[in-house]
Specification:
two-stranded antiparallel ribbon; about 30% helix; 3 domains; alpha/beta; elongated; single chain
Length: about 500
């Protein structure tokens, strides 16, 4: 028998059986394997000695049996019995395939070092207890005293006060050759004292008699201005008072119309603009129909309504000047709406827009208020006011209404403005000649700070354009005194 025959040449089917426990103890014992033939083939059962492949499997083939002289219809079992295949009927359904289960040891997996380095130990964690290191620690601080070098305090220099003197040394005394017994102030270093007379020329004196002497001496004798002109220059100095911290607002108001409120506003604004070097504006805030712009030469048709609508485009003083008219004294006037229907729409918010823009470019803002004192524009005006001017006429009812205006201001929380107010008594109204003006002044002096009489002037009575230089000197002096009193009542610093 050829025992090296390849398994694929076998026509039968092989059934492998692993050795049992008895076979494990007897390594040399023959393991019997039954190979069931396919349908139509004879079954051949051989011993372990035949075709032993070394792993306990016996291969039997019909062709091999024929070559050995064994009938192909018989099967050899072991070495002693021969079973006829015809006597054994095998049903395919009755054939049970043997199943052998082998328990192999579980494979042991070796964990690589790189995997073991990042592995997490399977340790049960109690969520109610977390072991942690102490969060605080105590240290011992040993204070060490470091000596601080002594710092010498600077010596405070005490400057003694100037000794009192019965006679105040003036520049005129120094020009006359006198020598001061006390230290002089910096105001004594004037141009008249330090400059040589030949290198400068004094301005011509003002006044009738000083001019006569100055002309008769061929401009060699200058006795200075007359007392009247010196008094006017002192008024100019009062008007030229400087302010810090923004614009000052001065409303001109009264409860009665026709008493010269617009005229007083014009005179006050012209006197301020003529004497001061900064900018002055007068705003016509009359909600009905103001005539303030008609007292100067109109250079534009713009009104307060145009300022409100163009407020976003006004970025500088040049833009704002296109909306106002300017007279010869450099007084800027902002007109009210000429249409009564539009004037009614000018309210508190509109005035605040105009006042905010005017406060950016001007030092003093005058507001010509309407006859009503309960509208919203009046409320916004008084909230910004630093001082007020009350206009009164020369009649009984006009003076009484002006006094009632002060009463209304006190009742509405503006008592400070009343005590700092200035009353302009317009004596150009009808009936002034029949009224005791001294009694009206005495009444108002008990309630306000000052009172000024505005005299009659033909140019003012015309109700047209006012030329400041053509006014009577008495009218200009009254307007300048009014301006000086108003400026003296304004705070030098905001909040003072």
């Amino acid at each position: 028998m050829d025992k090296t025959r390849k398994p694929e040449d076998s026509a039968g089917q092989l059934l492998e059986s692993e050795p049992t426990a008895a076979a494990d103890s007897q390594a040399d014992a023959a393991a019997t394997t039954v190979a069931l033939p396919a349908a139509g083939d004879d079954a051949v059962v051989g011993s372990a000695e035949n075709s032993n492949l070394g792993d306990g499997t016996v291969v039997a083939d019909a062709d091999e049996a024929a070559n050995e002289g064994v009938d192909g219809s018989k099967a050899v079992v072991g070495s002693e019995s021969v079973v006829d295949s015809e006597d054994v009927a095998i049903d395919d359904d009755d054939v049970e395939s043997p199943t052998v289960t082998v328990d192999l040891p579980a494979p042991v997996r070796e964990v690589p070092d790189e995997e073991a380095a990042v592995s997490i130990d399977e340790v049960t964690i109690d969520p109610g207890f977390v072991q942690r290191a102490p969060a605080t620690m105590s240290i011992t601080v040993v204070p060490v005293l470091v000596p601080v070098p002594a710092v010498e305090e600077p010596e405070v220099r005490v400057i003694p006060d100037l000794p009192a003197s019965e006679h105040a040394f003036t520049r005129r005394d120094r020009l006359s050759g006198q020598i001061s017994d006390v230290p002089e102030s910096a105001a004594m270093l004037t141009a008249e004292r330090l400059l040589e007379p030949k290198g400068r020329r004094r301005p011509a004196p003002q006044g009738v008699w000083p001019r006569i002497v100055y002309g008769a001496s061929f401009r060699t004798i200058n006795i200075g201005d007359s007392a009247k002109y010196r008094a006017r220059k002192l008024v100019d100095l009062r008007i030229q008072r400087e302010f810090d911290g923004g614009a000052r607002f001065v409303p001109i108001l009264t409860r009665k119309g026709g008493v010269g409120k617009t005229t007083v506003t014009t005179l006050l604004g012209m006197a301020l603009a003529d004497a001061r070097d900064d900018r002055i504006i007068a705003i016509d805030a009359n909600p009905d129909r103001g005539t303030l712009a008609e007292r100067v030469n109109k250079q534009t048709r713009s009104t307060v309504r145009d300022v409100v609508t163009r407020a976003a485009s006004v970025v500088g003083f040049t833009d704002f000047t296109t909306l106002v008219s300017r007279d010869e004294t450099r007084l800027d006037v902002l007109a009210s709406d000429t249409d009564p229907m539009l004037s009614e729409a000018f309210d508190e918010d509109d005035y605040n827009v105009v006042a905010d823009l005017a406060g950016r470019f001007y030092s003093i803002v005058l507001t010509d208020c309407g006859t009503g004192i309960v509208h919203s524009v009046m409320r916004a005006t008084l909230q910004r006011a630093d001082s007020v001017v009350i206009v009164s006429g020369g009649s009984v009812d006009e003076a009484r209404l002006a006094s009632e205006t002060l009463t209304w201001l006190e009742a509405n929380g503006y008592g400070d403005l009343v005590r700092n107010a200035v009353v302009a008594l317009n004596t150009a109204t009808q009936g002034t000649n029949l009224i005791k003006l001294e009694e009206i002044e005495a009444h108002f002096r008990s309630r306000v700070r000052e009172i000024v009489r505005i005299p009659y002037d033909p140019q003012l009575a015309a109700g047209s354009v006012v030329s400041y230089k053509d006014l009577k000197q008495l009218t200009k002096d009254a307007s300048r005194e009014l301006a000086a009193l108003v400026v003296e009542g304004l705070p030098v610093r905001r909040g003072a």
